[in-house]
Amino acid sequence: MYHSKAQFDTRFSPKLRVPKTWNVAVEPSVVLRSDEAQNEQAVAWVLATRKSARFRAEFITAVAKAIDPFLTARMYFPFCKDEYMLTEMEKFELVAFFMDDVFEHMSHLDNKGFDAYINCWRATLSQQRESISAGERLAPDLSTIKHDSCPWYCESVTAWFLSILCRVTQFMNKRRVPRHVIKAWYDRWNKSHLKYLRGCKAEGEYQDHNSDNFAVLRDATGIVTYCLLPAEAMVGPLPEDIIEHEALMTSINRLYYSLEESIGYFNDLISFTKEDQQAERVKNIVAILSKDNFTVAEAIEKSRTLHDQCVARAHAEMQRMRDLWPSQRLDRSRFLDAICQCAIGCDVWHHMVPRYRNSLISPQLVQI
After folding, report:
1. CATH code, 276
2. Read out DSSP for 27-41?
3. What is the pTM of this model?
4. 164-201: per-residue pLDDT in tens?
5. Domain range spanning residue 305?
6. How many domains does the chain contain in total?
7. Distances (CA, A) of 193 to 100, 262, 317, 337
């Protein structure tokens, strides 16, 4: 049973806090105008991929209408002025949202097939690591996929992600990023992607959520895979000496984890109405807290507090990184500015797309 609009005395607008020092370069008035032609091209690209015909075209089109790929790319990456990369990110985000919905609903029905897909993805990425990181191929080789053991969606999904990864790494090659640096980024992205896919499977299977164990499932929302690591690639992947700096990389990983959590809480707040009315309340922190004897208003306030705690941890990690990362290096400021803009843009994006338009909870960002 869901909460009807009549049960809400008012539209909730919790104030979520972010530091003033975060460089906020998202201007909603500039990016509000979408581009239907670009969105249609992204859908056409998805549907043209080999074996994609088994996915229903109307489902992919509906996802595109809900998230607006053109707007998504420009909100997530407001610092990027390269139209080539933004066009690739339109496809990337469309595929990411589409497969998020697909995997969450099919994983508990198709465990063996899902595991086979994971294994094939790992084998394909491993085999093509050298050639893709060198920018040698635009059309990925899918010969490693075993058609007798893999589920029907394996080939098209692998082709979607590999094609985009090829183009991202080609972009880095054109900017003369050293090959070993691209490989290191590529390996980190793949590790994050596998973690996210397993998270989708776990979320689809696990039904006994409570406020104590929910954070475990929040550990793989996809934000690192589809927002933070692509942002890093656009401004220049982390150089070798940074990757080999154990304390600094630990801090960066903590930063990513905290931002992933904070964006997850923001998403739960604004998507509560949608998921509540679609009987998906078990996957939402506001609903879970309501189940733990909180009122809706109390659950919203608790969720706001959790969000702010994550942001505070992220801010602390940024301060720690500034102490560890030599201040005279330009790559430090480029990296931190891009990650902050990406995180803020991801939050603000929720207010701009049809997917969350009827939300009765409208979280607002307040700089302090």
Report:
1. 1.10.600.10
2. -HHHH-S--HHHHHH
3. 0.88
4. 888 898 899 888 888 888 888 988 998 898 888 877 77
5. 5-367
6. 1
7. 12, 19, 23, 23
